[in-house]
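Let's practice the habit of predicting before peeking. Look at the sequence and jot down your guess about where helices and strands might fall. Then scroll down.
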Amino acid sequence: MSLPARVRVTRPPLPLSHTLRNAVARMLPAAPLPELTAAALAIAGGAVIGASLRWDGGEALFIESGWRGRGIEEELARVLGD
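Done guessing? Here is the structure:
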């Protein structure tokens, strides 16, 4: 399944920049952001719409409700797994 035209999924360097960290913290407030070992973010129109995070002992996934079911979840998992 291809992603919607304006969506890209990226694996940013860690630690996350201030802007990305704030966006991810709003989506996944319980995630231990300083302890991340990997992150994949879905971005549309300059806004973070989804995140897949991994840290020692856990992981989390979040997609904004309006973007679910469009293949973004699968692409986040694939990019995070690389």
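How did you do? Strands lie at 7-10, 36-44, 47-55, 58-63.
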